Amino acid sequence: MGFSIALIPGDGIGPEIVAEARKVLDCVGSRYGHEFNYTEILMGGCSIDAYGVPLSDEALAVAKSSDSVLLGAVGGNVGNSRWYDVAPNLRPEAGLLKIRKELGLFANIRPAYLFNELKGACPLKEDIIGDGFDMVIMRELTGGLYFGERHTEEVDGVMTATDTLTYNEEEIRRIAVKAFDIAMKRNKKVISVDKANVLDSSRLWRKVVAEVAKDYPEVEVSNMLVDNCAMQLVMNPGQFDVILTENMFGDILSDEASMITGSIGMLSSASLGSSKLGLYEPSHGSAPDIAGKNIANPIATILSAAMMLRYSFDLDKEADAVEAAVKKVLKDGYRTIDIMDEGMTQVSTSQMGDLIADNI
Ligand SMILES: NC(=O)c1ccc[n+]([C@@H]2O[C@H](COP(=O)([O-])OP(=O)(O)OC[C@H]3O[C@@H](n4cnc5c(N)ncnc54)[C@H](O)[C@@H]3O)[C@@H](O)[C@H]2O)c1
Ligand SMILES: CC(C)[C@H](C(=O)O)[C@@H](O)C(=O)O
Ligand SMILES: [Mg+2]
């Protein structure tokens, strides 16, 4: 079968890791008889340099008309880059927020899974990790602080900046439904994470989640405050199956969870809406500190491509093949530097991509 993929390499390590995911997809294509047609588009700093905007209308139109979108990462060194000395909607990250909003991708699924082979790269003690770590963060992606009204102004001679956090019950309901649906396919346990001791939006969040829970009597549901959750993740990670949370809490907690899997270079993600069109990207950023060195871990992007096969194209056995190839390569002892451990063989970004592709 043929599938169209909008490919967004982006900035920093983006082009390096996307090239490896494409290599793996091409192997899947020839092994299983599918044709993946790529159209490369610019987003982020590279688009600002070329067109003066982080995402052009033309690029957005290509993404909208594709079967799926695969992204590396966008952005540069925030404290030290010409891309950030401008209005917020002209910064590299604005392109990412725009594509998420325009494509209606309100559900960001971030699976945090510790491969047995990487237990040595996990910073937690063995007795804390126990049998392993396998959970999903269901992060709301098109609401909250990222999309609220904001401005900076001088008030009584003092510079004052404002961001607003708004959720309506429809936005909460649709992401809660996604979380409960995924829990039904897993261990039937949802922990909804909020800050209901302080925020009105979190109080509404709790109320709506409780309503949705009534439709899923088999799912065990509880609430947890976000600060406690940050602590519980490192103290007792095994208690989590599905975390359901709002946009910014999910952003922060997913970076934390990634380290339990060994490295942020292991955490894949899928951003979905109500159609088959999804955006697939690693959870990490453009890593300017290691860009251009061929040392970045491409596995998060490769596993994101596997999620694309599964969710956007319904190619389950092909997705299984990619995940199995990643596991085999780790089992054979190959590691990029971020997950390197004693007695293992260190490989580059492109060597890791070759090894995974060879194992499809
Ligand atoms: N989806 C995205 O496009 C996305 C996501 C997060 C951050 N960003 C952007 O990326 C830029 C850099 O942000 P940051 O430095 O805070 O976060 P980052 O995730 O880019 O990097 C954090 C640390 O993790 C390391 N790292 C990240 N990915 C890695 C990989 N695949 N293999 C090995 N090591 C890896 C980096 O070297 C760095 O030390 C910022 O402009 C930020 O806005 C973009
Ligand atoms: C770059 C930034 C806008 C983005 C986010 O916060 O959503 C990133 O950190 C992520 O996790 O995808
Ligand atoms: Mg993030």
TrEMBL record:
Record pathway: Amino-acid biosynthesis; L-leucine biosynthesis; L-leucine from 3-methyl-2-oxobutanoate: step 3/4
GO molecular function: 3-isopropylmalate dehydrogenase activity; magnesium ion binding; NAD binding
Principal cellular location given in the protein's record: cytoplasm
PROSITE patterns (alphabetical): IDH_IMDH (PS00470)
Key word Manganese present: yes
Listed SMART domains: Iso_dh (SM01329)
PANTHER family xrefs: 3-ISOPROPYLMALATE DEHYDROGENASE (PTHR42979:SF1)
Protein name as it appears in the record: 3-isopropylmalate dehydrogenase
Source species: Bacteroides pectinophilus CAG:437
